Q: What sequence folds into this?
């Protein structure tokens, strides 16, 4: 039987958007921005859901210590969905269809427990937006928290 940590009245909600500009293929750390939005919205214990509003970018939780991990992940995705595979869909260039495949493989949403107003990530984990297109893009991530509000002012 799970331990009940908190029970209370109607849930507290936060709904916001995180907008960022990417530099091309790679991972952009969103962890600090998520934590900032949870603090500003007075989040307590609950669940934060993140959803990237694009079909050629994705979200992931990955290691935050070694930059080589992020580079290797981009390389691995390039091997899984190469640009030169004779894709039928190439309206926006050779990176178009591979970007859609990479987003499908890695996912467009995440749910992360929030404890004491902070994402309950492990010591070496961070939340990243993964840009799959060659050019820089403006990307938007919807953030929705539901749970208890943080006590106090």
A:
């Amino acid at each position: 039987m799970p331990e009940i940590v908190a029970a209370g009245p109607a849930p507290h909600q936060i709904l916001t958007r995180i907008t960022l500009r990417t530099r091309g293929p790679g991972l952009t750390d969103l962890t600090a921005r998520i934590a900032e939005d949870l603090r500003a919205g007075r989040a307590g214990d609950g669940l934060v859901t993140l959803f990237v509003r694009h079909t050629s970018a994705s979200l992931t939780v990955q290691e935050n210590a070694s930059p080589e991990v992020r580079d290797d992940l981009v390389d691995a995705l390039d091997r899984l969905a190469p640009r030169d595979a004779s894709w039928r869909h190439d309206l926006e260039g050779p990176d178009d269809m591979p970007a859609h495949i990479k987003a499908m493989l890695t996912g467009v949403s995440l749910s992360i427990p929030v404890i004491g107003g902070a994402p309950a990530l492990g010591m070496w984990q961070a939340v990243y937006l993964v840009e799959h297109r060659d050019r820089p893009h403006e990307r938007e991530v919807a953030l929705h928290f539901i749970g208890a509000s943080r006590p106090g002012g």
Q: What stands out?
A: The chain has a mean pLDDT of 93. The beta strands are 12-21, 26-29, 43-52, 57-63, 109-115, 118-119, 125-131, 138-149. The chain has one domain: 21-148. Residues 30 and 107 are 16 Å apart (CA to CA).
